[in-house]
């Protein structure tokens, strides 16, 4: 009689395991930080609360996407490559080129002579934003003035070309999904 009772509960236990085991497995994976979400962006996302306003600076071109770069005191070959990649990335946007404006941020001692062969918009930078951009990175700013994503400085020209391609890919995704600007 016991064997008949066991046979009746076997499908019930099996059915229970099929539904409970994945839940327990998922809980273990998440609690041990074994799962890392599938991010497709190539740049580093910034804190959502970082904006021109929070960094004590007025938005130089409101209602448009921006790529900002802080021009250093001495513009060496890496800086020149960075300016070239910024210019070429803007051209590579194609039909979305009108929606994105590259802006060179200037301090009092920035090497303005480096901009001779380029036609970039310029703006004066606030000290708070200058502190954030100390490592010569490129930053994407949305039309509302929020700093969205940054791209760190890389060493050689080949890496900068790859960085430019990554930035264009990220910008295209943002522009496609954007409902502003």
Tell me roughly what share of residues is in helical segments. Answer: 40-55%
Quote the beta fraction.
15-25%
Ends apart, CA distance between termini: 75 Å
Poorly predicted tracts of residues: none
Shape: elongated
Count of distinct strands:
6
Radius of gyration: 25 Å
Total helical segments? 4
Q: Can you write the helix and strand succession as a string?
A: HEEHEEHEEH
Side-by-side strand order of the widest sheet: 1-6-5-2-3-4
Mean pLDDT across all amino acids: 87
Largest sheet: 6 strands, mixed
Quick structural gist:
By secondary structure, the chain is an alpha/beta fold. 40% of the residues lie in helices and 15% in strands.
Structure commentary:
By secondary structure, the chain is an alpha/beta fold. It is 40% helix and 15% strand. The protein contains 4 helices and 6 strands. The chain has helices spanning 2-31, 77-92, 127-132, 157-177; strands at residues 44-45, 65-70, 100-106, 121-124, 138-141, 147-151. It has a 6-stranded mixed sheet with strand order 1-6-5-2-3-4, covered by helices on one side. A hairpin with a 5-residue loop joins strand 5 and strand 6 (147-151). The longest helix has 30 residues, at 2-31. The mean pLDDT is 87.
